[in-house]
Amino acid sequence: MIAKKTSVLVLGVVLLAMMIGLTFFFREQQRNAGGPPGASATAAAAPARNFVILKPGEDLASIVRKAAGVVPSPAQLAWQAREFIAFAHFGMNTFTDREWGLGTEDPQLFNPTAFDARQWVRVFKAAGMTALILTAKHHDGFCLWPSSLTAHGVKSSPWRAGKGDVVGDVATACREAGLAFGVYLSPWDRHEPSFGDSPRYNEFFRGQLRELLTNYGPVAEVWFDGANGEGPNGKKQVYDWASFYKVVRELQPQAVIFGMGPDIRWVGTESGYGRETEWSVVPADIRDPAAVAASSQPHPTDGAFLPKDLTEDDLGSREKIKKAKALIWYPAETDVSIRPGWFYHAREDDQVKPPETLLDIYFTSAGRNSVLLLNVPPDRRGLIHDADARSLRGLRRVLGATFGTNLAAGAAVRASSEAPGRPAAAILDGDRATAWAAAENAETAWIEFAWDKPRTFDCVSLSEDISTGQRIEEFALESWTGGAWEGFAGGTTIGAKRLLRFPERTAQKVRLVFVHSRTSPTLASFGLHRLTR
Question: Which parts of 338-444 are beta strand (E)?
Fold first, then answer.
């Protein structure tokens, strides 16, 4: 009898522990999914993922709800927070005065006698950049590290008697300065004899990836473009993208893959100007959606992802997503060069984009739910030219003076509704980890700001809490004048950041109205500023 009672007691303890464990599990999943605001308890309990498979014939309302629940992966979230990063096109083209090399260049031409990676990093960090992506190998196949797989690189050059390593020096300089480090590795290789023999070259390319992702510390971003051409055998190379992704995930699991990869997409232009309406959740072409949906792997879409450029003006509207088979968190990176070319050319020293142009680009890239990737090419000495550094310093002065002060600070804040634990006051606390959310299923909402004295401003900064998804479809700004609300600015998507400029406005009360949202709108930060030139 005692044994029976003991067994019952043990069983009861086990069941109680299981119930507590399940309760904790579902609460944790709800927190990770951004719950409870904007999703049912059942949906919030499901693991948050950066993709969703849609059912054939699913109605639009259901698709929109699912789109609102797609969230960035931790690596994508970290990438988005970088906001403004540097690209450095440097290599054989720097010394041949070309943009695309032929692959036949003599390695003896490469000799940056004053090369100083720390000088690059000082310039970029002073400009407010948070990461640097280096062209470790461009289309000409010349390697900026001493690859064991080819002699065509720095080890065959006179620079440092063939003992130099540009990739190693840049990675070390970034690490010392606290900048994230990334690599561009061109799949197209006009020098490599195996290019065009697809199985052989793919193995060669995977080997180069392994060298770069093994020997140089943490890598934050791996940059692939889709350039391709015929190999020496007259055949066009067929890239094994899925196997390339596998190498990245194995060796640098925290890295995002840009371009011809499933994490970050090209914005579609090299002008630096992004879309007015930029959705991070877009339709995805995926092989075998059922297998992807059933996968428990950290990156289940990698083996099924079909890379392509997405360059249309409208990528993620309701009209677009209603026709999709799957949706994926696939945000845009906006690349542009500070000069007309991507590599350094002395003739372009007087054509560096001035701070005013860079400011416009910043507003229309980082300020339109993208990350700005600004190319600043080192010169033949191996240094950032003073013309480029001067323009970057000018941009940083304007950005610092403009956004260093939030004129909305100190406001009395009230909202049409607040979800539990998500107060409106959180958007002015300077902490992106805290956010406001409207009550559950409230697809429209407003937040009002009031000060004891009028404030004058001419631009606004907004950030959604994208850890819970991208939800806002349209917003408007109004000021209280003469007993009524008067609109003065507005837009569509917000995402990670939205910046708007408008004619100078003076007001003592401002209201932010969320006109349309896919589910309860959220906001992590709100700022009013006065542009300083």
Answer: 370-375, 412-415, 436-437
What gap in Å lies between CA 272 and CA 45, rounded to an integer?
Answer: 39
**d(C-alpha 44, C-alpha 34), whole Å:** 7
- State the Cα–Cα distance between residues 336 and 39, nearest whole angstrom: 38
Given a contact cutoff of 8 angstroms between Cβ atoms, the answer to whether 155 and 162 are in contact is: yes
Calpha distance 242→240 (Å, rounded): 6
Residue 158 three-state SS: coil
Least confident of 295-304, 465-474, 486-495: 295-304
- Give the single-character DSSP code of 140: T
Report how far apart, in Å, the C-alpha atoms of 475 and of each of 180, 430, 485 are. 34, 21, 15
Q: What pLDDT is recorded for position 302? A: 78
Cα torsion through 289, 293, 295, 296, rounded to 10 = 150
Q: What is the mean pLDDT of residues 260-279?
A: 92
CB 191 within 8 A of CB 141: yes
**Size (the chain), residues:** 533
Q: Share the mean pLDDT of the chain.
A: 90
Listing DSSP states for 81-97 in one string gives HH-EEEEE--SHHHHHT
CA distance 280 to 315: 9
As a whole number of angstroms, the distance between CA 225 and CA 266 comes to: 9
The kind and range of the H/E element at 500 are strand 498-517
Residues whose CB is less than 8 angstroms from the CB of residue 468 and which lie 6 or more positions away in sequence, other chains included: 33, 34, 37, 38, 71, 435, 437, 522
Angle between helices 117-126 and 166-177 (to 10 degrees): 40
Give the predicted TM-score (pTM) of the model. Answer: 0.90
Taking the CA atoms of 306, 302, 337 and 401 in sequence, report the sign of the dihedral they define. positive
At 232-246, the pLDDT tens digits run 999 999 999 999 999
Q: How many CB atoms lie within 10 A of CB 383?
A: 19
**Side-chain-side CA neighbours of residue 270 (13 Å):** 9
Q: What is the pLDDT of residues 151-193, one digit of tens each?
A: 999 999 999 999 999 999 999 999 999 999 999 999 999 999 9
Q: How far apart are CA 377 and CA 391, in angstroms?
A: 13
Contact yes or no for 510/448 (Cβ under 8 A):
yes
Q: What whole-number distance in Å separates Cα of residue 301 and Cα of residue 317?
A: 22
What is the distance of C-alpha 271 from the center of its chain? 17
**Token reading at 244:** 């390339």
How far apart are the C-alpha atoms of 36 and 45, rounded to whole Å? Answer: 9
Rounded to an integer, what distance in angstroms lies between the CA atom of residue 493 and that of residue 518?
11
What distance separates the 2 farthest-apart alpha carbons in the chain? 96
End-to-end distance of the chain based on CA atoms, in angstroms? 86
- Residue ranges and CATH numbers for the domains of the chain are 76-403 (3.20.20.80), 412-529 (2.60.120.260)
CA atoms of 235 and 140, how far apart (whole Å): 18
Looking only at the bridges linking them, the beta strands covering 84-88 and 131-137 are parallel
